[in-house]
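In these records, each integer encodes one residue's backbone shape. Here is one protein:

___
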Amino acid sequence: MEYRDYYKVLEVPRTASADEIKRAYRKLARRFHPDVSKEANAEARFKEMQEAYEVLKDPEKRAAYDQLGSDYRPGQQFRPPPDWGSDFEFRGRGFGAPGGEQVDFSDFFSSLFGQGSPFGAAAGGRGRGARARGEDHHAQLDLTLEEAHRGVAREVTLRHPEEGADGHVALRERTLRVTVPAGVGDGQVIRLAGQGAAAPGGGRSGDLYLKVHLLPHRLYSVDGRDVTLSLPIAPWEAALGATLSTPTLGGAVELRIPAGARSGQKLRLRGRGLPGEPPGDQYVVLQIVLPPADTARARELYEALRRELPFDPRAGL
């Protein structure tokens, strides 16, 4: 997808205040509104302005967008950073959550703030009556698979954008102690009662919802509570069978490889996935790896196999 410079769209500098952004949007809206504009590209231009204003008028979205920096150019190919939005704390339901206005903005906007992003996947919202309860906040909590498996207690630093009296956005940091239960899954939400916004008039504070995001692992892929490991094996281990030490999230176990195993064959280790009721399983996918024929002796052994084994892998074609 292509990067969009929202400041250039609204013709304001990156240092513009909230009031300056609002005035710029209103001025351009009067010029390009499809109902009154004579410009040939008025409709597309007006939609582009709406998208830019949706981001820059919101202190949270603007602060997050600003973290991308100013090195990108309009039209440049863009992909959100892997840690996009992971340490931002934001209010309410998030764009695209149930009850929010659905607007057909660009793929660039959707990748940053749409339903599948940290800013758009929030649940919950403001309590009944501003005086009765403060607003809920939401953030993404990045965890390693090992942390999710065993549970962890650690400090989490979150940044919450706030608009100052001068109309400029500043990031306020706070650090919280979070206890994550063993077996938490990707997308699961942890609720911290009373850690959202304070309630006007001294009512009950809102809650903070942390949505778990499991970081990619070098060995395992995750599906719910189940994990999958690709296990390299030698041709003789596949042909003759073997018992191999195999990593799991709870430590190495002995896995029996049946004689005549095939590449791609899947074996199951019951209960070796993420803890839960019931616990997940670990699936082991066998991958036969050939030794390289990079020495004279290795080539000699391969030649002996070719002569002495009546084997045609394409006999069934």
Summary: The chain has eight helices and twelve strands.
